[in-house]
Specification:
Layout (H helix, E strand, L loop, with lengths): L6 H17 L3 E7 L4 E7 L4 E7 L13 H18 L4 E4 L8 H11 L5
Parallel strand pairs: 1-4
Antiparallel strand pairs: 1-2, 2-3
Length: about 120
Amino acid sequence: MAKFKSPTDRRKARNRRSIKAAAKGRVRLSVHRSSMHIYAQIIDDEKGTTIVAASSMEKTLREKSGANVDAAKAVGKLVAERALQKGVKDVIFDRGRFLYHGRIKALAEAAREGGLNF
């Protein structure tokens, strides 16, 4: 491992450290975005399993471009809906190395509107 990490790696490590401190048995809503799509999954770190996942690559969401705020809102609502079906209500939001802005913020707000608490 390199001695000097990139700013995004440092941001990711700082964010993950605060998430682990605040988790207290809650599952994690992890978000990843690429230039073309956005992905969200709810992960149980204690068991090491993914409970629910959603992305802009799914057939129902392919009509929209995966690289815009509307697609992020649709993915946020879909992941919240699937989580509620599995009985998950309380999560902790993991934005990873991404700033809480734009598509990441839109996904988070849509997940809150969908019924998730974080």
